[in-house]
Amino acid sequence: MKSSYTREFNFTKYLEKVCDAETILYTGRVSGVKGLEIESEGPRSVIGEICTIKLPDGKTIKAEVVGLDGIKVRLTAFGETKGIEVGCEVIASGATLQVPVGMSLLGRTIDATGEAIDGLGEISPETYYPAIEVSPDPMRKAPVNKRITTGVRAIDSLLTVGKGQRIGIFAGSGVGKSTLLSMIARNTDADINVIGLIGERGREVLDFIDRDLGKEGLKRSVVVVATGDKPAICRVRAAYVCTAIAEYFRDQGKDVVLMMDNVTRFAKAQQEIGLSNGELPGNGGYPPSVFDMLPKLMERTGTNEKGSITAFYNVLVDSDDMNEPITDAVRGILDGHIVLSRQLAQAYHYPAIDVLASISRLSKRVSGKITQTAAGKIRTWMATYRDNSTMITAGIYQKGNSASIDEAIDKHDEIEDFLKQEEFDPCPMKETLDKMAALTGMEIPEEEYSESPALNRPTTAQIVDAQKKVPEPEDF
Ligand SMILES: Nc1ncnc2c1ncn2[C@@H]1O[C@H](COP(=O)(O)OP(=O)(O)OP(=O)(O)O)[C@@H](O)[C@H]1O
Ligand SMILES: [Mg+2]
């Protein structure tokens, strides 16, 4: 019979797959178990590789290679090690952790291995992204020149954030970090939220999904969870998994907001792994691997040539000490920090943002000239009031002695009202700018209400491309 198919068939892509296929299964045997740490002889593997351990009852446990020493392989399990015995087979997968990604992730809650935990069935991925990835090529990064709306007045006015900016939210325990994140998740104008809940309590996770995010918020969000009772490797990997998911959506051209609550628990989990793997404790008791991983993780967010990831990283500041090592390291990596103050929270001033101690390094690039002047005016009044607050509250200051202090006192209550905001009371950007104009008596021009009021600067890549281009002769 003559085939109706006349064109030559192209086998190249199939051949490539077959040539690359791993035909040898590398296996090893468990030689010891200590808590979640497993030691085995073999298999041939690399650090970060995922292995499967076969239990005598037929069940399997996933584990990751965290140390190599001759033929000895140290693994850490993603779940309980109950049932493992000496001699169990360890099979190397040949791959590091891959995260299932796709549009179907929206509205779903997954764990650190990428499996759904919301009882809504399996997720059918479009493709897989590696959990551990390098940061985008700095030459191909689009500039941050669009403003993101967080819906939080104090941030949008005085600490304006750009799409693709990376910000840390620093505070001691119970000062309102998670509440602030949930306000941003509900009200931001970004396309998609990816939220990593790392080391939180189980109750907080349910509260966050049901109460804080709500049905509408969840629809455009993906939540990655590794609660505090999960093994350290799960808490570390959850941070990578949510970053990989954000990267996938960024590659689809979306403006993504990535939120991590919180980075300190990620660092503590890596501390556990590092120390049990023989690393020596360094700064603040943290092994060097912690300070190596933090910048690598955080450099992955930001812009690339397709979309943006605006990242908010919550940092739990131990004993409210802003110089403790994790706080210090994270502050140096990011493009800005929002500091929450216990004093403000105690006075029921929510969100408890200490504006004068906070900074958004890119705010000038994403807000108009007049808006910047208005923000500067408010900051000056606040600083003047703070510097003289002892005199003012003790009644020592006499009105009329200084025009600037008089003005700061006059504006104080109005500024407080402007900065306070109820949790479920969103504030669109237009309302924030209107209120700012009224507070400062300045008129903010129409064009400064747009998403990119500052200059549209060309990207570094565009400049390089323009320089490379040789002008073509027009006529011959
Ligand atoms: N905007 C707000 N309006 C009213 N109350 C708030 C607001 N933000 C925080 N709170 C109060 O502060 C409490 C602690 O907030 P939250 O759980 O967000 O703090 P946290 O810094 O995340 O704490 P932890 O360190 O334990 O994770 C809340 O239970 C709530 O009572
Ligand atoms: Mg919290």
Describe the structure.
Helix content is 35%, strand content 20%. The chain is α/β, with parallel strands linked by helices and 476 residues long. The longest helix is centred in the middle third of the chain and has 20 residues, at 232-251. The relative contact order is 0.12. The model has no long low-confidence stretch (mean pLDDT 89).
Summarize the structure.
The protein has helices at 12-20, 153-158, 177-187, 202-219, 232-251, 263-276, 288-298, 325-333, 342-346, 369-387, 389-393, 403-419, 429-440, 460-468; strands at 27-34, 37-41, 49-54, 60-69, 72-77, 89-96, 98-101, 109-110, 127-130, 166-171, 192-198, 221-226, 255-261, 302-303, 308-316, 336-339, 359-360.
Shape: globular
Discrete helix count: 14
Helicity range of the residues? 25-40%
- Whole-number average pLDDT? 89
Give the termini separation.
Answer: 58 Å
What Rg, in angstroms, do the CA atoms define?
Answer: 26 Å
